[in-house]
Amino acid sequence: MEFDPGFAIHMEEETLTFSYGDGAFGPICEKRHLNDIRSSLADADADGPDVLYSIAMDVGMEKDREAIVQRNLLYGAVAYAKGRIGKEPVRSQGHIHAISPSCNASTCEVYEIWSGEAYIYMQQYGGDDAGNCYAVHAKAGDVVIVPPGWVHATVNANIHENMSFGAWCVRDYGFAYQEVREHNGIAFFPLADEAGNITWEMNPSYSQGNLTICEAKEYPQFGIEKGKPIYTQFQENPDKFLFVAHPEIKKKEWEELV
């Protein structure tokens, strides 16, 4: 990986899976296939890699497990295939975080890119008017925070390389797909030409939406330190990411974030 995740996890490029070193824990990866997301694509009949990405939810170091569980947090690792799905780069279908019973709210997600490049796409609403939409370009070492209640999807921004990332999320997570599926996907489809240049095309199932394309930024208001793995930051201060499981403690910051 181009950026050190901060604990003993390794991505297997050929199989899109993760292995764990001494003292680390993690599950066998779950694989997401092309047929799983066809209904959300610009072209539902498009060809592409069979396995789009693999997910290992609940990874970390054994010595940290109790502290993670106590705070109702969960760390996930994801590996994305290279290539295209028709004219789109490999991506997820998009969802909103469902209301978590533990906090009675939709929660945020804190991404950290480990290798390759990504677009973290997010849109304000799931209805006909998608509101403000953002495609945040992130490279290895960059952090991107998705606010609570926002539709979001992850895109491999470099069709020539695999991509991987880690993310903090709430432990009792759940996904709401209905609004996205009712609109045949996210409000703006990413399109990649053969050279890998990415443009964005509005999904005609939406009546309105305003897209801003931007680079990843820093988040001092959330106490995030640039260049230091977010897993290491948790080890140094286990309460730093309490806002992930309890979004209400950062109400002011969410209002000002956009």
Automatic annotation (TrEMBL):
One of its GO terms (biological process) is gluconeogenesis. Keywords: Gluconeogenesis, Glycolysis, Isomerase. The keyword Isomerase applies. Pathway: Carbohydrate degradation; glycolysis; D-glyceraldehyde 3-phosphate and glycerone phosphate from D-glucose: step 2/4. One of its GO terms (molecular function) is glucose-6-phosphate isomerase activity. One of its GO terms (cellular component) is cytoplasm. Its EC number is 5.3.1.9. It comes from Longicatena caecimuris. It comes from the Bacteria. It catalyses: alpha-D-glucose 6-phosphate = beta-D-fructose 6-phosphate. Belongs to the archaeal-type GPI family. This is glucose-6-phosphate isomerase. InterPro entries: G6P_isomerase_prok, RmlC-like_jellyroll, RmlC_Cupin_sf. Residues 48-193 form the Glucose-6-phosphate isomerase prokaryote domain.
